[in-house]
Design a protein that fits this description.
There is one protein chain. By secondary structure, the chain is mainly α. It has one domain (about 10-245). The protein is built from twelve helices and no strands. The chain has helices at about 5-10, 15-35, 45-60, 65, 75-90, 95-105, 110, 115-120, 125-135, 150-170, 180-205, 210-250. α2 packs antiparallel against α3, α2 (about 15-35) packs across α6 (about 95-105) and α3 (about 45-60) packs antiparallel against α5. The chain starts with a helix and ends in an 18-residue tail after the last helix.
Amino acid sequence: MTFADLFTAWAPTPWGIGLPALCAAAYLVAVLRLRRRGIRWSRWRSLWWLLACLLAVWTLCGAPWALRTESDWMDGLAVGMAAAVLPLGAALADPVRLAETVRGRPVRFLRGRIARAFMYPGVSSALSALFLTIAMTSRWYSPHGQTPELAWLLLLLGAFVTGMLVNLPLFGEDLLPVWATPGVKTLIAFLDGIFDAIPGIVVMLLVNMKTGGALLATAEVIGIPMIAATLVQWVRADAATTRVIDAELDAEEPGDGLWWQSDPRFQDRY
């Protein structure tokens, strides 16, 4: 295997093309419905979603799938993509708010007690790490690309779902407790990187060194943009809060005259 093979190896599958294409179409249809109502949707969010769909096609049809039997690195790379990279791109697109804006009502199963328990800070990261560790060290996974295709696809889907439990509340609205401020979300993203290291280390020690190394590297590298995204949220939230406070202070100030003319301490003097 050469470096160029990462971009040229190709083994298309119906699910590898069909599932991402279906997700991309559903998102774009929702955006078009909003535009017809005169509601604008961020182009950047749409681009994040399309990028995640393209990366999903590469994960399920490109080198991570085509070269599984030739390189042990590919299994770890595929799991890392499904568990960390794809959920981050999808969460940055804020699909929950898009769906709720189109529907005009909340998505109940994401705002119920069970969903909130699974997405609770720390719980979601632990669930993701636990799922990957158990799946990769059990009979579910066979190294050297020997896992049956259906079992492998289900493992990747499970990795994606548990990864979304971590990323979706970090970049969505009202999916975390009130105390999870933007600063707390940044701390959660940092701590999640520690949990992400566990499956890769365990796989390196118990299953296959290369597979675990690729999983560890992918999960840890994507942690940097994840933390950066939460920092951007933090800065924007502070800026929005500042604008609100400034507007309230401006509303309290008199429209005419100097400040000391309305101060009761000086009204009798001037």
